Amino acid sequence: MLTKKQHELLSFIHQRLNATGVAPSFDEMKAALNLKSKSGIHRLITALEERGFIRRLAHRARALEVLKLPETAAGPHAVGEVIQGNFRRPLQASDTHTQSEGAAVELPLFGRIAAGTPIEALRDPTATVEVPPSLMGTGNHYALEVAGDSMIDAGIYDGDTAIIQECDTAESGTIVVALIDNEEVTLKRLRRKGASIALEPANQHYETRIFGKDRVHIQGKLVGLYRQY
User: Fold this and answer.
1) Of these residues, 11, 36, 38, 150, which one is catalytic?
2) Do 115 and 81 form a contact (C-beta atoms < 8 A)?
3) pTM for the whole thing?
C-alpha cells in the first residue's frame, strides 16, 4: 500500500509522462503536492523506486519511468497512523498479547514497516501472527512485517516478521521502531549524538539520517525475528 503522498506523486508523474513524454521537474512535483521542500519529493521518489513503481534512468535529467501503478486508485490512509474502529491514533502497541502455557503467542500484526525508506505502518485489526514465546521479553509486544533491505547486515530481511517490545525509550545502539515527525515509521538502529538522534541502517547503500530529539519518538525495540521459508 502506498502512502497518500506517494500515490499522489505517482499519479502526477504518470499523467505528465502520458501528456508530454517528459517527467515533471522537482519544483513542479513540489508545487503539485503542496510540499515545502524538494527533500520531501526526493524521499517520495526514493520510496516509489524501492517499491518498484518507478525507475530513474541514469545519465539523463528528469528521466523517470513508471513501471507499474497501484492495483486500486483508492487513496490510502494517512501515514504514521493506526486504524482502529472509526478513529485514528499514532502508531502504538498498547494491545496486550494472549498466551497460554506452552502455546504460541498471538500478537497483533501491524503493517509492513520499511527497513529502507520509511513507509506507513497500518494496523489491520483482524490481523494477528503466532510466534514462539521464546522470541519475546516482558511487557506488551506487537509484530511488524519488514519491507526493504536496509537492515540486511543486521540479519533483518525483506518479509521477516519483527517482534517489537513496546517502549518509548531505548539505549544507543538498539534497533528500534521510530516515528519521525509523527508521520513516518521506520526500523533502524538508534544512535544518540548529543542533542541529535541518528537512525542508522545496516546496509552501506543507505544513508544514516539525523534528526533533532523532538522529531523522533520511539515506538518499541526489536526483541526477535520470525522467518518462514
Assistant:
1) 150
2) no
3) 0.56
